[in-house]
Design a protein that fits this description.
acetyl-CoA carboxylase activity; 4-stranded antiparallel sheet; alpha+beta; Biotin carboxyl carrier protein of acetyl-CoA carboxylase; AcCoA_biotinCC; 30% strand; Biotin_Carboxyl_Carrier/Decarb; OB fold (Dihydrolipoamide Acetyltransferase, E2P); 168 residues
């Protein structure tokens, strides 16, 4: 990896919300950790060590495709962090039991709810079949359905997220 690529990588990590980043490729190893609370003297490296690190980097250059892969991984991690922040504003309706998820009362009828529907607390949102019994699952929140996390006919576990709700 060339010096300019390392500088660009440092800038990308520094401007992102990532607290830790590690990359290994052959003999080269880069580790960045913004969560460490060290004094300035602990983070300094002698000139001799800088020379060794630079020589290792020059000896083992990373191909352009590897560089693109690193950028892709960093972008995906940043997108995941943004999604987690967005998800923190949402409420999750979870399965109260193990069984089979059904979005409608029968295959011929429309789903109880779909993305974009405004629901109120107590509204039936799905059915979970457990031991040949059909259990109607009611909403615990008032709000808008943002995402259905389960496909019709899928098995669900106790506590498994079913819907994301933006509370009103």
């Amino acid at each position: 990896m060339e010096f300019e690529q390392i500088k660009e990588l440092i800038t990308l990590i520094d401007t992102s919300d990532l607290a830790f980043f590690e990359l290994s490729d052959g003999n080269s190893h880069i580790k960045m950790d913004k969560s460490l609370n060290r004094g300035g003297s602990d983070n300094t490296v002698s000139t001799a060590n800088d020379k060794i690190i630079t020589e290792q980097v020059v000896e083992k250059p990373i191909s352009n495709s590897t560089n693109n892969e690193m950028k892709k991984v960093i972008k995906e991690e940043v997108k995941e962090e943004v999604k987690e922040e967005e998800d923190s504003n949402l409420s999750i309706i979870t399965s109260p039991m193990v069984g089979t998820f059904y979005s409608a009362a029968s295959p011929d009828t429309p789903a109880f709810v779909k993305v974009g529907d405004i629901i109120s607390k107590g509204k039936i949102i799905c059915i979970i079949e457990a031991m040949k019994l059909m259990n109607e699952i009611e909403s615990e929140y008032n709000g808008e359905i943002v995402e259905c996390l389960i496909k019709d006919g899928d098995m669900v576990e106790y506590g498994q997220p079913l819907f994301k709700i933006k509370e009103a």
